[in-house]
Write a structure and sequence with these properties.
The protein has 161 residues and is α+β, with helices and mostly antiparallel strands. Helices cover 43% and strands 22% of the residues. The longest helix is centred in the C-terminal third of the chain and has 32 residues.
Length: 161
């Protein structure tokens, strides 16, 4: 799993050192990562072959010609870059992706379990604050529903409910 958050700097050639913990998760026949514009946020999404295979399987579930399938194909397949590690464990981010998300110097790599994201540092700080609020509200709502279900108790046979 991709875990934790790492602050890094891009060098003049748009290279970034991928944390060893992340590199270990992408070991396989291709020594690198798959990166593409995230569908759910203004950042780069990345991962190993397992992530790419998950997206491919998701796309295959949709009928050929389905507009959602077409959008996913364009976003994932059309936007993907296979980025190999150099001897120092760095990848070189494509100029197009750096420009699209304002990545110039300070970036943040965020582990999300089966994938990771690369953010411009200030954009990530705002995103993290918003995500924390959503998580806080969602957890409170889940706990309230659990308490309500516990108070109501199990449904009795023959009762509507």
């Amino acid at each position: 799993m991709f875990l934790s958050t790492f602050e890094k700097q891009l060098d003049a050639k748009r290279r970034i050192v991928v944390p060893q913990e992340f590199r270990a998760q992408t070991a396989g026949p291709f020594d690198g990562v798959f990166c593409f514009p995230s569908i759910e946020a203004d950042c780069i999404e990345g991962g190993g072959k397992a992530l790419f295979d998950r997206y491919a399987a998701l796309i295959e579930e949709l009928e050929f010609g389905d507009p959602i399938r077409s959008a996913l194909e364009a976003s994932v397949f059309g936007g993907v870059s296979q980025l190999a590690y150099d001897t120092a464990g760095r990848i070189t981010l494509p100029e197009l992706l750096c420009d699209q998300f304002g990545l110039t110097l300070d970036v943040v790599l965020v582990g999300l379990g089966d994938r990771f994201q690369i953010w411009e540092r200030e954009a990530f700080q705002a995103h993290r604050a918003a995500q924390r609020e959503i998580a806080r509200e969602g957890l409170a709502s889940m706990r309230a529903a659990q308490r309500a279900a516990k108070i109501a108790g199990p449904a009795k046979p023959g009762s509507a409910g």
